[in-house]
Amino acid sequence: MAETFTTPQGRRIAYHLTAGDGPAVVFLGGFKSDMQGTKAVYIEEWARAQGRAFLRFDYSGHGESSEAFTDGCIGDWFEDACAALGLIEGPVVLVGSSMGGWISLLVARALPDRVAGLVTIAAAPDFTEDSMWTGFSEAQKAELDSAGQVALPSEYGEPYVITKRLIEEGRDRLVLRDPLPLPFPVRFLQGTADADVDMAVALRLLEHAEGPDMRLTLVDGADHRFSDDTCLELIATSVTDVLDRAMG
Fold first, then answer.
1. Per-residue model confidence as pLDDT tens for the chain (248 residues)
2. What is the model's pTM?
3. Phi-psi region at 16: left, alpha or beta (left = phi > 0; alpha = psi -120 to 50)
4. Which of 81, 116, 203, 215 is most deeply buried (CB count within 10 A of its CB)?
5. Which residues are catalytic?
């Protein structure tokens, strides 16, 4: 059974916190995913076996947390993530999957003193602008403007309803247009067969960010889920590497 807390903005966030040694590992999930996903649960089990503190949570409008998904935007979910860090004392290692990669970069930029390291999995920084808006047809852009939302087909179930607020607010959260210092160990993980986030995004992120210890690992044939045994083991290895370097 998940516990809950309320953010300063009044949103109720569901979470699971495993006690253990710090730095705590914090998992930030993807767009319309939840904390019950394969990667989140796998890392939790890994952390428990290591005696490592671990936190997974649902953004507002996701999973067991309050609010409607269509009411949310990148800024709201970033605020949720910052509030979730209030459950933990001391430095953290962030593990951001897809949209969670973007959120983790926003957290690292806003709270640099809290972040000891970062692992991203198919990170999707700036996707509302560079993937969604850029990919919309003129008809879709017109529908978004007039109706306030547009439905996009999804391979993961029902269509994604993309709101005008999500697109417009996202422009205030872009991380690939301004300096992005990452002064801690960083491991970017990316599959070559990812149909949702192109390898070019990972390469752009690596080129754009600035830090003393950044590496990008490409996994041949891995898709966006990045959840087979090999990929899960690579995530754990990468988190271990970041922790060792952060603590060393």
1. 899 999 999 999 999 999 999 899 999 999 999 999 999 999 999 999 999 999 999 999 999 999 999 999 999 999 999 999 999 999 999 999 999 999 999 999 999 999 999 999 999 999 999 999 999 999 999 999 999 999 988 777 788 899 999 999 999 999 999 999 999 999 999 999 999 999 999 999 999 999 999 999 999 999 999 999 999 999 999 999 999 999 87
2. 0.96
3. beta
4. 81
5. 98, 194, 224
